């Protein structure tokens, strides 16, 4: 007999990225024309959230995760449940690159003074562990590392933990602070970065992505658990799906076969049909291949009856492993505000991209089921279906 899936709601979100720290400032900053690359959180000071003695032992990407978690828990309120029934899935693409660079530099000196915290600071799982340790969560703690699909994968992983009954609450999200010189040079060598320093998703003059940084955390709960403690759901995770292109380490499948399967499977998992979708948060990196492929996939699935589409990466930059979770948090905020975020950087749409309704300015919206797309190096595709609370 098939198991009845538990409904999973969102009761708290927190995020920070270049446009702003906290959901309110982040949303307001999405409309600002960005400065040149990389898109960094300028003058970030963790001390209002993390004691200085502790923050010195945490890489920047872990600091970001704790700041986002603080905001998410402030909204969700006291969980009041067995902490061993709380799972954590905190994604990253690269992890503690700043700490790795410091370790390499120090170890090359004649008299190195390597901190005993250097390895824990650079570990990819450090952010997930930090949240578990700070809040005492004893359920499964994991770190999806599937490139730019990681932030969305964390949401799907948390959803499954609750649906399958292994957890009642899942703290999910992604964090990244890898927009450093070494990484930028590596992406530049791969001809993925914009030489002009501006991301232009779906524009005919797009020339690559811009590195960003930041984090987002979403608190997911089984709906009966949230209701029992009097929490207010702010969104619902209807379902999701993950696939692989099995094609190339950096280039997407030329027809977008894996991306299309992920979107169709996410619809099926959520009990939706294409006509139910009110908005698509596009992966939309501003690269030649991604934007063209994603546009073609959307056109094949939705035909002439496409929902509104936008990518926020023209504003936030590409947060790599954090991007999917930051964008999911923005989707939840869009539902709360009944507004759609704009596709910053789009001036002249590429005529070869068959998208009919790209959101060019923030506009009123009747919230409805939304697909949030994340496609990563290695051919990883993850799509999450999010709906307003019902």
Summarize the structure.
This protein has 390 residues and is of the alpha/beta class. The chain has helices at 23-29, 52-55, 60-76, 97-107, 118-122, 126-135, 150-163, 181-189, 223-228, 257-270, 288-302, 313-316, 323-337, and strands spanning 8-17, 20-21, 86-91, 141-142, 169-176, 214-222, 235-244, 279-281, 308-310, 339-340, 363-364, 370-376, 380-387. It is built from 13 helices and 13 strands.
Describe it for me?
- The protein has 390 residues and is an alpha/beta fold.
- 34% of the residues lie in helices and 18% in strands.
- It contains 13 helices and 13 strands.
- The strands form two sheets. Strands 1, 2, 3, 4, 5, 6, 7, 8, 9, 12 and 13 form an eleven-stranded mixed sheet that branches.
- Helix 3 (60-76) packs across helix 6, helix 7 crosses helix 13 (323-337) and helix 10 (257-270) packs across helix 11.
- The longest helix is centred in the first third of the chain and has 17 residues, at 60-76.
- It is globular and about 65 Å long.
- The mean pLDDT is 96.
How many strands, which pairing sense, and closed or not: the largest β-sheet?
11 strands, mixed
Arithmetic mean pLDDT: 96
For the termini, the CA-CA separation is 27 Å
User: Radius of gyration over alpha carbons?
Assistant: 20 Å
Number of DSSP E strands: 13
């Amino acid at each position: 007999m098939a198991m009845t899936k538990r409904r999973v709601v969102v009761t708290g979100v927190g995020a920070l990225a270049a446009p702003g720290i906290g959901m309110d400032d982040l949303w307001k900053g999405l409309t600002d024309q960005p400065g040149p690359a990389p898109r960094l959180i300028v003058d970030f000071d963790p001390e209002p959230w993390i004691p200085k003695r502790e923050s010195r032992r945490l890489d920047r990407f872990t600091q970001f995760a704790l700041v986002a978690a603080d905001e998410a828990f402030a909204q969700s309120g006291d969980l009041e449940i067995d902490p061993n029934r709380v799972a954590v899935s905190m994604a990253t693409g690269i992890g503690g690159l700043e700490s790795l660079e410091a370790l390499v530099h120090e170890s090359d000196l004649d008299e190195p003074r390597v901190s005993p915290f250097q390895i824990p600071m650079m570990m990819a799982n450090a952010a997930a562990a930090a949240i578990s340790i700070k809040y005492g969560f004893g359920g499964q703690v994991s770190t999806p590392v599937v490139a730019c699909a990681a932030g969305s994968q964390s949401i799907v992983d948390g959803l499954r933990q609750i649906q399958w009954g292994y957890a009642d609450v899942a703290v999910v999200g992604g964090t990244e602070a890898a927009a450093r010189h070494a990484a930028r040079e590596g992406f530049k060598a791969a001809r993925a970065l914009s030489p002009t320093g501006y991301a232009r998703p779906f524009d005919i003059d797009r020339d690559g992505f811009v590195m960003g940084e930041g984090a987002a955390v979403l608190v997911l709960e089984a709906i009966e658990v949230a209701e029992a403690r009097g929490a207010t759901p702010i969104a619902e995770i209807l379902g999701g799906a993950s696939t692989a292109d099995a094609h190339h380490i950096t280039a997407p499948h030329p027809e977008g076969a894996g991306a299309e399967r992920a979107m169709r499977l996410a619809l099926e998992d959520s009990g939706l049909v294409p006509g139910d979708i009110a908005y698509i948060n596009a992966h939309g990196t501003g690269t030649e291949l991604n934007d063209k492929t994603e546009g073609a996939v959307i056109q094949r699935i939705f035909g002439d009856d496409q929902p509104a589409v936008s990518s926020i990466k023209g504003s936030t930059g590409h947060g790599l492993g954090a991007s999917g979770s930051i964008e999911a948090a923005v989707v939840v905020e869009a539902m709360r505000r009944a507004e759609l975020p704009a596709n910053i950087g789009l001036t002249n749409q590429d005529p070869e991209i068959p998208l009919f309704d790209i959101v060019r300015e923030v506009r009123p919206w009747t919230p409805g089921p939304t697909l949030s797309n994340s496609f990563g190096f290695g051919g990883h595709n993850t799509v999450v279906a999010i709906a307003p609370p019902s």
